[in-house]
Amino acid sequence: MIDILILALFAVFILFRLYTVLGSKTGLEKKTPHQPFSPAQKTSDLKKKAKSFFGDDTVIDVPFEQTEKGVKGGQHVLESFKKKDSTFQVHQFLEGAQTAFETILTAFAASDKKTLKSLLAPKVFSFFVEDIEKRENDHKTLQILIKDLNAEIINARLTSKTMEIDVQFESEQTHTLTIPNSSISKPPIVSQEVLICTDLWTFEKPLNVQDPNWILIATEEGSPSS
C-alpha cells in the first residue's frame, strides 16, 4: 500500500511539472502543426493532452535528477538517439539549437526568406513568410535583439524515420519596428518592446542521412511579459 501511495504521489508531481512547463502556448507564430495546451485543462487530463501534443511517443516519465544537464524529459529517448547516431551529443545539439534560434529570428526580422527556407519545414516557412509579407505591406522594418538566451530539451521522440526534439527557449528580446523614409536619415520608431519570451520549438532530423542539420518543424509561443 505504501509503495502504491508513493507511486501515486510521484505521478502527480510529474504531471504538475509537465503542466507548469507546457500550460501555455510557446513559438514565433501562432499557427502551428501542434495543438497547444489550454491552461484550463484539469490535472486528470494532462497526460492525455501531453500525448496529443507530443504524439503517441514519450511523455516526460523519468526523474528530473537523473537527466543530463539541459534535459527536462525524454532522457531514455536521447540515449536511443545516440545508438542510432553516434555523433549525437546533447550539449552540441543545444549549442546548435541556440544558434538556430538566433539565426532564424534574425533572418525573420531581415526578411531573409532564403535563409529561413533552408532551416524551416515548408509549413513553418509559410507562416514566417506570411508575417514577413504583412510587415512589408505595412512598409515597416523590424529589428530583434536577443539577450540572456537559454535552451532546455523538454522532450524527444524517435520514429522509424526521424529523430524529434522539443526545445524550450527563454530569452529577453527587444523588438523595434520602424518606418523607413528616404528623406530622413534616422527612421522614426513606430514601437519598441522589451519582452521576456518563452518559446517551444520542435526540431527534426531524418535517420540514416548524412546531412547533420536539424529542421524546425513546429513552433509555439508563450505569453511574453514586457
List keywords for this structure.
226 residues; 4-stranded antiparallel β-sheet; 37% helix; alpha+beta; Nuclear Transport Factor 2, Chain: A; disordered N terminus; 6 helices
Overall description:
- Helix content is 37%, strand content 27%.
- It is an alpha+beta fold and 226 residues long.
- The protein has one domain: Roll (Nuclear Transport Factor 2, Chain: A), CATH 3.10.450.
- Strands 1-2-3-4 form a 4-stranded antiparallel beta sheet.
- A hairpin with an 8-residue loop joins strand 3 and strand 4.
- The chain starts with a helix and ends in a 5-residue tail after the last strand.
- 27% of the residues are buried.
Q: Into how many domains do the coordinates divide?
A: 1
Q: CATH class, anyone?
A: Alpha Beta
Spatial ordering of strands, largest sheet:
1-2-3-4
- Tell me the total number of β-strands: 4
Q: Architecture in CATH?
A: Roll
Distance between the termini: 49 Å
Q: What shape does the CA trace take?
A: elongated
Helix/strand order: HHHHHHEEEE
Low-pLDDT runs: 1-47, 56-66
